[in-house]
Amino acid sequence: MTRMISVDPLHPTSDSLQDAVDLLQKGEVVAFPTETVYGLGADATNPHAVAKIYAAKKRPADNPLIIHFATIEAITPYLAEIPQIFHSLAEKFWPGPLTLVLKQTQNIASNASQGLDTIAVRIPAHAVALALIQESGVPIAAPSANLSGKPSPTRAEHVISDFKDQIPMIVSGGPTLIGVESTVVNLTTSPPTLLRPGGVTVEDLLELIPDLVIPESYSAQHPVSPGMKYTHYSPETELILLRNSRQLSSTAIDEIASINGRNPLILCTSSSHSHTTDVLSLGDSLFEIQVNLFSALRLLDEKSYDVGLFEDVILEKEGFTIMNRIEKAAHHVITTD
Ligand code: TXA
Ligand code: MG
């Protein structure tokens, strides 16, 4: 049985979190909200607890976990080297949606970092997450609380849908504010490398790391080929990414969506479009689209659509993260000239 407890997301009381803290201290996994997405947390110093995360998520064993802390002072004993840029990034972005990869001292459970000599750390900007970390007294390893391959959870209901009766507890604190996972930056390379775009925009990072290395595979020059080998964040329902959608009329998009007489849902990212097929508007700004992205992908499976058509967005600010997730999630890409 999975117990769901609701807590105040801004001012959680110690009483309301006591059972979750007890479970974490006993080596159990607990799902909890962060500002990005819900996490599936366990004591990062306890290998048995960490193993339960991998088992519940069916996560490949070679994919290491992010370790969550409440303060910088709690992190530094785990770091073998602290580059100067660590402090400036921490000061500007923590608590917040930034994860930093650094050389570690090996004090964390070895299955949390999968034998690497590095550790991924972050301080989340969420009162519930911070209180759980503080009160349990240990760093918390937490991947996103979804089955491996599924869209990340932005609401407690998403966690239930993936883990009902598989984990002892879900702490519900309402919908998450950022809607995508943290940005991951590797500080062990010189200059630092962007490993995953996320809640902190590249534009904001470049202010502190002007020479940040952004791998080619994230760039607009590398369109994703149809029939991609690996899907990630994917709904069961077929998902199509429509490139150059801004240059198309609403009618043209409706025709593409309804091809072969299918029942489509258009995931609409442009307020200037008006469609005749069913539409889910993701919002008027890139930030709103980002916040609503994962619940829109899950909605495709909850309703009886047989295809989802996602209108692409511009590759800047939150749009860079949105396109990174959609390129991984989409089963096919349609490009029109
Ligand atoms: O917003 C987030 O980051 C959420 C919340 C719960 O904090 N967590 C999350 O975790 O998205 P997860 O496990 O879904 O993604 C962790 C990412 C993976 O891409 C993993 O490969 C990378 O961080 N990672 C973890 N440790 C690493 C390391 N030592 N070196 C390089 N990449 C690492
Ligand atoms: Mg994940």
Structural account:
Helix content is 29%, strand content 19%. The protein is built from ten helices and 15 strands. The strands form two sheets. The protein has a ten-stranded mixed sheet, with helices on both faces. Strands 13-12-14-11-15 form a five-stranded parallel sheet, covered by helices on one side. A hairpin with a 6-residue loop joins strand 2 and strand 3. 45% of the residues are buried. The model is unreliable at 219-230 (pLDDT under 50).
Provide the list of bound ligands, each named once.
threonylcarbamoyladenylate, magnesium ion
The SS-based structural class is alpha/beta
- Number of helical elements: 10
Q: Taking Cα atoms only, what radius of gyration do you get, to the nearest Å?
A: 20 Å
**Helicity, in percent?**
25-40%
Q: What is the β-strand count? A: 15
Q: Give the neighbour order of strands across the main sheet.
A: 1-8-2-3-7-4-6-5-9-10
Q: Element order, helices and strands? A: EHEEHEHHEEHEHEEEHEHEEHEHE
Terminus-to-terminus distance: 52 Å
Mind describing the biggest β-sheet? Answer: 10 strands, mixed
Shape category: globular
Low-confidence stretches: 219-230
Structure keywords:
single chain, 337 residues, alpha/beta, ten-stranded mixed beta sheet, five-stranded parallel beta sheet, 10 helices, 15 strands, 19% strand, binds threonylcarbamoyladenylate, binds magnesium ion
List strands and helices in order, with pairings.
Elements: E1 3-6, H1 14-25, E2 30-32, E3 39-43, H2 47-57, E4 66-68, H3 72-75, H4 84-93, E5 98-103, E6 118-122, H5 127-136, E7 140-141, H6 156-163, E8 169-172, E9 183-186, E10 193-196, H7 202-208, E11 238-243, H8 250-257, E12 264-268, E13 278-281, H9 286-302, E14 307-311, H10 318-329, E15 332-335
Parallel strand pairs: 1-8, 2-8, 4-6, 5-9, 11-14, 11-15, 12-13, 12-14
Antiparallel strand pairs: 2-3, 3-7, 4-7, 5-6, 9-10
This protein binds threonylcarbamoyladenylate and magnesium ion (MG).
